[in-house]
Design goal:
The protein has 191 residues and is α+β, with helices and mostly antiparallel strands. Helix content is 39%, strand content 30%. The protein starts with a strand and ends with a helix. Bound molecules: flavin mononucleotide (FMN).
Amino acid sequence: MIFEVIITTINADGIPHVTPFGVSYEGENVLISPYKPSTTLDNILASKEAVMNISDDVRVFAAALTNRQACSLKQANKIKGFRLADCLQHVELALIEKRDDAVRPQLVMKKIYAECHRYFNGFNRAQAAVIELAVLVSRLPMLPRDKILAEMHYLQIAIDRTAGENELLAWSWLVDKVHQFYAQAQNREQI
Ligand SMILES: Cc1cc2nc3c(=O)[nH]c(=O)nc-3n(C[C@H](O)[C@H](O)[C@H](O)COP(=O)(O)O)c2cc1C
């Protein structure tokens, strides 16, 4: 199973980086698999640590894909990095193994500290729709335009029926990004 989370890392100067990742579990360990090149990969290899934030605030997912800052950070408890100030749960991780690969290495991370901050309210379809669109946005150059637009159209149903303010805002950022990407692609074709 893959779980969509927010990974926070720091670079050599202590500058934080916030990115959505799909992680999996191997026993108690967390596996993070970044496609190269990746700032998250570079940061984890340099600092040997990361924080896995479990969040139902889909603005954080959409913001990372649209170059926005939509979250505040707090110092982690046991490591040098940061966690999302507002999340359901955060888990501080230490790198214990790197399984190298030319395209997508696997980082095996050991849990060294975990804390729950809020209760999970239950599944929300609009949140799932925002996550789906965020995944599509992260693959805009690779996927056919018709597929992206058709899926976005279908996901809109869950947004219309079940979204709150945060989901509507996150959705609008991603939809804008999709339209911007195709407008720029059209311009490039005309040049
Ligand atoms: C829900 C979700 C899950 C993602 N999972 C991964 C992943 O497992 N590996 C990956 O390389 N990128 C993943 N991405 C894309 C990254 O968030 C990001 O766009 C980029 O590829 C990683 O770049 P960075 O480390 O330079 O920030 C995911 C994006 C979303 C929205």
